[in-house]
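Sample entry (341 residues):
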Amino acid sequence: MKKRNVYLILWIVFVLTFFCSFALGAITISWNEMRGAVAHFFTGTIDRSSLDERIFFFIRMPRVILCSIAGAALSAAGAITQALFRNPIVEPGLIGTSGGAAFGAAFLFVLGSTLSWTPGEWTMPIAAFGGGAFATWLVYLLSSAGAKKQSVTTLLLCGIAINAMFMSGVGFFTYLARDPQARSIAFWNLGTLSGASWSAVFTVGTICAIAMALSLRRAKDLQAMLLGDEEATMLGVNTRRLKLAVSLLIVLMVAGVTAFTGVISFVGLVVPHLVRRMNMTNTRDIICASALTGAILLNLADIVARLAFAPAEIPIGIITSLVGAPFFLYLIRKSTDFYGE
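Predicted structure, serialized as tokens:
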């Protein structure tokens, strides 16, 4: 299938799932109520709209937009990570980013009040980013210590160890926490979009848009990295600087999303595989198509999370893990396109 047709189909499916996600949930919202809510907002009379219209504008709408941003950012970060390390089983969680972000958030939940920091609009992203950046830095430091050349295998093994260490820290904080705090940590670690708000949409959207734009500017260098470090260096790419800069962008996207949605697994691992099976080979196209596909799949997962046991809600991370793990095992058995490995 031609690349243009792939993009066209992805955009059509995204728009359909996007608007279906607006309508479906514990409360079904009609198209007329959606139009009414938007009209009341632009006329400054949103406070006089109906209950369903307010639910749509203040709860459902920011949730769907945040879900789309989160799916796009996590999938793009996964595609970038796999390109950077020339390994199709790599995702941000395997280089410590997700575990570190979870640790930072758990630290804030339990000890934030002691430091006069409480979970809020800005403190949570800062804590998650700090934890994610620190964990990723540790992985790089340990994997390159005493070595002339950084091995991808060593980096992944160090990432798994560091990720386990930070997740044990999350477990320790859960043990120390009081009941409300422990519940918040547990629910947050399963991934949830229930706390979506317009401020979260603007914050995460801004962070991810900047990181995505800067990542796409590095797409040509990432394409060269697929040839190997030495070959990329011969083409004029500073591989060490590229790895550092792109890793910071990955941390920015993943930690920014994780701070508001919790840990959502397997999206960044599975989606790039799906995109490559769509005959996408160029790194820029894989990143862009992964963002679209991730937004589609996470919206579908969110619809299932809202409807499966309505009016109760399943954490979205359970849905993505339940579907993503067996599907990834299927891809491993069937796929032969492992960047030539």
